[in-house]
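Quick note —
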Amino acid sequence: MKVVGQNFWYLISGNQDLYTDIIEPIGYRAKEHNDVFHAEKSRIVNRFTREFIERFCDESGAINWVGLVAWNSGNLDLDQFMLDS
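Predicted structure written out below.
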């Protein structure tokens, strides 16, 4: 048996209107979570932006591409790695 939509909510609750009654509280809770998510996301983006600027930009704000590529793709010091292993 496949029960979905209004019939599903009626089956589990005995309330024929539950499927619409739950929409408003769910929407309210979703907005609360979205607000928290967006605030946290903004904080993280700001932190990463600050760290990127401090590490990979010069005084004028231009990106030091050589430094960025070296940090991202530079070779591992294999001699040191072998000593540590």
